[in-house]
Amino acid sequence: MQRIALPRLQHVVRILPRASPVQQRRFIRSRPVLARPTPPQSSQQPPQVEVDKDAIKTTVAETKAPKYAVVISGTLAGLLGLYAVALLLAAVKPCDNPAVSDPAQQKDVAARYDSTADSFDSEVGFSEIFMGINSKRKWIANRCLGHVLEVSCGTGRNLGYYDISKSPVGKVDSLTFVDLSPQMVEVCQKKWNILTGRKLHKLKPGLIVRFATASALGEMPLAPTTPAPRKYDTVFQTMGLCSTDKPVELLVNMAQYLNTDNPNARIYLLEHGRSHRDWMNNILDKSAEKHAEIHGCWFNRDITKIVEEAAKRTGLEIVVERRQHVGTTLFFELKSKTVTKPKIDSPPPVDVEQEKSKGWFGFRKSAEDLHGHPTESLRSQSSTCMDYEPCLDFVAGTESFSTSEVRLKERMDCQR
Fold first, then answer.
1. Residues 402, 211: contact at Cβ < 8 Å?
2. Of 52, 151, 281, 341, which one has the fewest beta carbons inside 10 Å?
3. What angle do CA 177, 140, 236 make, to 5 degrees?
4. CATH fold for domain 110-336
C-alpha cells in the first residue's frame, strides 16, 4: 500500500484565504416619501398659439437690413471719395480763365433772385447751419443800434436777431430793409409778420420797421427821425457784394447813408469771397460760373480789395477784418475817420398861443382843458415817419402794415 504524502497544516493555512471579520449591519430608518399632489386637470384645452407670418417676414427683413446698410454706406463712401478726388484735381490745376474773378468781366446775375425768392431759404439753409453762418448773423445783428439800414436784405434771414425787445429796452430804434428784388422784399415782409404776429406787445414801443424795393446803387429812404429825416447809425449788409455788378460803387453809396455825426456809427459787412489760399481759389474759380447761374452770386471775388477801394474813396476806416472757413467767409467793421459835429441852430421863435395851450410837463392840452374842463386822456408818445412808395412801414403800438403813397404820414402811438 502506497503512502500519500499530506501537506503540512501550515501550508494549507497559507493557501486558504483569510476570512474577513464579520461586520455588524446598521439598520437606518428612512422617512417615508410623500407623493406630490397632482394638479387638477382642467377640462378646457390650452389655447393654441397663432403664428404671425407678417412678424416672421419682418424678422427676416431685419436680418437682411444690415446687408443693405453696408451696400448703401459703401456707395456713399465711394461717392465721397470721387468728390474728394475731383476737388483735389481742381485744387491742383488753376483755372484757364484768369478773368473769372474780375467783377468787370462777370455777368450781372442780380435778376436771378426774382425767381428764387420762394425757395431761397431752403436752398441755403442747410449750408449756413453747417458752416455756422446763422450764429455770425446773430452776433452782428446784436451789435446794431439806433436807426438801422439793412441793404440787400433778401428774404430777411437776419430778422430774428435784432435787439428790438421791450424789456430790457432794445438798442434798435428803427429798421429799414431795402432790396432790389420785389419778390425778396415780399418774402421778408411775410416773414416779419410770422415772427412778430403774436409778439407785438413784446416789441420796443415806438419801433418803426419799413420795407422798400430800391437799388443800393441809387437813392434809398433816409432814417425815420424827427423832426427831419437823417442818416443811419448802423448800415448792415450780408452777402450783398457778390450779387451786384458794381460792388465798389454799391459800398460807396452805402457809406453816404452813414451818420457821421455819431461817433458810434458803423457799417457791418458779412460776405463770402476769395480765399487767401491758392488751392481754394482754384476750386472757387472753376465752379464760379455755374454757381452764379444757379444761385445768383459770384463767390470768388476779392472782397478785401473791394472794401479797401471803397474805404479810400469815402474816407472810411476798416476797424475789424476777420476771416473764417479757409478765408472764404469775411467780416468787416467800418467807421468814418472824421466825425462831423452837428450844427447848433438858433431856436425858432416862440408861439405865445402855443405855449399857453401846453400843460404840465409839456403835454398839449385838449379842447376841454382850454375851456377849464378836466382832461380825459393825454397822448404821451408820438412818432412821425416819412414813407416813399413802394415803402411799407410798421410802427409798434399802432396798426399793422400799410402801403403808403408819396405823402407825409403822422402816426400817434397812444399810451393811456
1. no
2. 341
3. 30
4. Rossmann fold (3.40.50)
Pairing of β 329-336 and β 208-213: unpaired
Residue with cell 463770402: 272
The Cα 29–Cα 151 span in angstroms is 109
* Cell numbers for 299: 463767390
In the chain, the amino acid numbered 380 is S
Question: Which cell numbers in the block locate residue 201?
Answer: 406787445
Q: What is the dihedral of CA 190, 191, 194, 197, to 10 degrees?
A: -80
What would the pLDDT profile of 29-46 be if each residue is shown by its tens digit? 556 656 666 666 656 666
Length of the chain as a residue count:
416
Q: Is the pTM of this model over 0.85?
A: no
Number of Cβ within 10 Å of residue 227's Cβ equals 6
Q: Is the dihedral of CA 318, 322, 327, 330 positive or negative?
A: negative
Structural domain spans, the chain: 63-92, 110-336
- Residue 78's pLDDT is 81
Helix (H) or strand (E) holding 62: helix 53-92
Residue 339's CB: how many other CB atoms inside 10 A? 13
Give one DSSP letter per residue of 356-389, joined into a string: HTB-GGGPBP-HHHHTTPPP------EEEEEE-T
Q: What is the spatial distance between Cα 414 and Cα 378, in angstroms, rounded to a whole number? A: 8
175-193 pLDDT, tens digit per residue, is 999 999 999 999 999 999 9
- Cβ-in-10-Å burial (0-12, 13-18, 19+) of 408 comes to exposed
CA–CA dist 385, 208 (Å, integer): 8
pLDDT, tens digit, 9 for 90 and up, residues 338-395: 766 554 444 444 454 444 444 433 333 433 343 343 333 322 233 333 344 445 565 6
**Strand-pair partners of 380:** none
